[in-house]
Structures are given as structure tokens and as C-alpha cells.
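Standup notes, protein team

Yesterday: finished cleaning the Solihabitans fulvus set.
Today: 2-C-methyl-D-erythritol 4-phosphate cytidylyltransferase structure.
Blockers: none.

Input for 2-C-methyl-D-erythritol 4-phosphate cytidylyltransferase:
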Amino acid sequence: MSVVALVPAAGRGERLGFGIPKALVPVDGVPLLVRAVRGLLAAGCVRHVVVAAPPTDLDTVTAALAEVGAAADVVAGGAERTDSVRLALEFALRTFPDTRVVLVHDAARAFTPPEVVRAVVDAVLGGSPAVIPVLPVADTIKQVDADGVVIATPDRSALRVVQTPQGFDADVLRRAHVTCDGPATDDAGLVERLGVPVSTVAGHPNAMKITTRFDLAVAEAILSRGVG
Ligand SMILES: Nc1ccn([C@@H]2O[C@H](COP(=O)(O)OP(=O)(O)OP(=O)(O)O)[C@@H](O)[C@H]2O)c(=O)n1
Ligand SMILES: C[C@](O)(CO)[C@H](O)COP(=O)(O)O
């Protein structure tokens, strides 16, 4: 089994607003990125992690990851998340050409339980070319026009909130990034453009993406309950 995880961590964290990359923001003294990488390795099925870091912070990110030693490499990320994933993927496939499964996991989803990682990997190894963890939508969703006027109320029973890690057959993800004709907000979106089916497994509330100060407060509450 050869599973490599890519961790896009090159965002600036503008909405969090601490003036440092979000991946380096500590929760109870441990940076989000380190928590995310620990979670991946704790799943027991990830052979190696490739982190895409802000090009200006490569040394800081490398130092933060010293505790995981040779299990992680750090590469320079790009302008958009899609660019960061592509750069990490190129490095991973060059360095580990026998990679069979690639996970893509946001540093910002630092409290993802290892069982979600395992469920995604198992589904890809079971034959699904692309697998994403999802949750049901709790709120009613409206589609609006440019003026904010409601034009439709989609049936929420058919909608899902999408998390990471997203898991892929390595060649499918490579093709998706090679043929990429513009950024997507997630990697499954690129795979969908190839016409390859994307399957779902159960996500977890703790796999929430930390985007705002409110999310950070929720993460601190998760931690104080002894999770993560
Ligand atoms: N050029 C980018 C932009 C984002 N990311 C990563 O993609 C994940 C999801 O992005 P998001 O939560 O939007 O992070 P930021 O871009 O840092 O947030 P903001 O938009 O508030 O600056 C994060 O782990 C982030 O570091 C990345 O690797 N490269
Ligand atoms: C990949 C992702 O986390 C799935 O929900 C999300 O799409 C990232 O979005 P962002 O635009 O980088 O915040």
C-alpha cells in the first residue's frame, strides 16, 4: 500500500487575520499544520506527507514539522489552493513514483479524526477512483441572483457539505491537475471535470475548516473536550 498525503498550507489566513499564515497559528501551543499532519499520520495508513507552504515561510514551516522528521517534505505553494496542490502532487509523484493513493487535506482542517482518513483511504483502495468526506446540510439553502433576490430553493436532502481529506487514485488526480483549465475550490471538482465518478463517505463535525476567529474558538472547545 502506498498512500501519500498532500497538505495545502500556503494560504495567508486573511479571514483569520493574525498576520501570519493560518497553518502556523497555534491552538493550545501547537500550530494547525502540525495538528493536521499528526492526524494524518495517526491514521496509520499514510506513508508520507508533502506540505505546500507559503514560499516566504518555508524555513518556519520546516522547523514546525521537525517532530515528524522524514515523514514530511515541504515544498513552496502557489497563488491559489489548486496551484499549491499541483506543486505538492508533482513533487510527490516524482519522489514516490509507486504512489497508489493520494490524499489532499487542508492544514485548516486540523482536527479531522483519523477514522475519517482511514475511511477515505479504504474506499479508494476498495476501487473508488475519487472519495470525499461529506456531511448533510443542516440549513435551508437559497440560490440568489446578483441582486440577492432568491431564485430557487434547492432540495437540501441532495446537498452535502464537503470536507477533506479527499482521496484519489494517484493517476486520476494527476490527470485532473494536468488537464485543469482553471482553479476549483476542491480537488474533487477537477476530477468531476474528467467525468470520473466521485464517491462519498461520512465526514465528521471535528473536520470543520478553521476560517474565522469563531471557528478557532470552536476548535479550542473541541480540544478542551479532549478531542484532537
Ligand atoms: N494559495 C493557497 C491558498 C490556500 N491554501 C490552503 O488551502 C486550505 C484551505 O484554504 P483557506 O481555508 O481558504 O485558507 P487561506 O487561503 O489561508 O484563508 P484566507 O482566504 O482567509 O486567506 C488551507 O489549508 C490553505 O493554507 C494553499 O495551500 N495555497
Ligand atoms: C477543499 C475544501 O476544504 C472543501 O470544503 C474547500 O473547498 C476549500 O475552500 P477555500 O475556498 O480554500 O476556503
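Follow-up from PR in the comments: The longest helix spans residues 81-95.
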